[in-house]
Design goal:
Length: 192
């Protein structure tokens, strides 16, 4: 799964095929699990961004907010900047939250895979899911830009559908990642 730009919106999902499960790790302590749950706290920030975007879309639909407000929020959100940094692997121009994917891609995933090869399939799947989320973020930004230039019902419907696909993907991906990596992060990752 490399270039997803021509993939139909309804086919952009992280819930395709079978998601590998993490191997069971024996004797994981409460402290190790707590360390692993730190990822959920980071994800909560991104979900707050999603709630903010949903509120703006709802206000636009109600006629309370002009479409250019949506474009400004989408293009300026920390979450978009973070996933954009992951997508092109440059890491430039992003601030504190960029570290989330940098840590996953360049530290956490390799550290887990290096110490526990049975996690390789799970990590490969998570990386593929990051690509889907990145594509959906790019599409949402493009929708917001089009809606700003030409606010019409079709453009708004496309924006809402793209946002809904992104929201589903992020919630599913975050839940999967948190559930499957909680113990591994606590056991195999030195620092997060």
């Amino acid at each position: 799964m490399s270039d997803l730009s021509s993939t139909p919106l309804d086919a952009l999902s992280v819930e395709t095929g079978t998601r590998p499960s993490a191997p069971v790790l024996p004797n994981v302590t409460a402290a190790q699990r707590a360390k692993g749950r730190h990822l959920a706290a980071i994800h909560a920030h991104y979900l707050q961004d999603m709630a903010r975007l949903r509120a703006v879309i709802d206000r636009i639909e109600a006629g309370d907010t002009p479409p250019d407000h949506l474009a400004q929020i989408v293009l300026a959100s920390d979450m978009h900047q973070n996933f954009a940094a992951f997508g092109n692997l440059c890491g430039q121009g992003c601030q504190m939250l960029t570290m989330h994917h940098n840590i996953e891609e360049h530290h956490m995933f390799p550290e887990i895979a290096g110490k526990a090869p049975p996690f390789a399939a799970l990590i490969a799947r998570l990386r593929e899911e990051h690509k889907v989320v990145h594509e959906l973020l790019n599409r949402l930004a493009a929708c917001a830009e089009r809606l700003t230039r030409s606010p019409d019902e079709d453009g708004f419907a496309e924006t809402r559908a793209t946002f809904a696909a992104l929201h589903r993907a992020i919630q599913s991906h975050f839940g999967y990642e948190e559930r499957e990596l909680e113990a591994a992060i606590g056991v195999y990752v030195e620092r997060i």
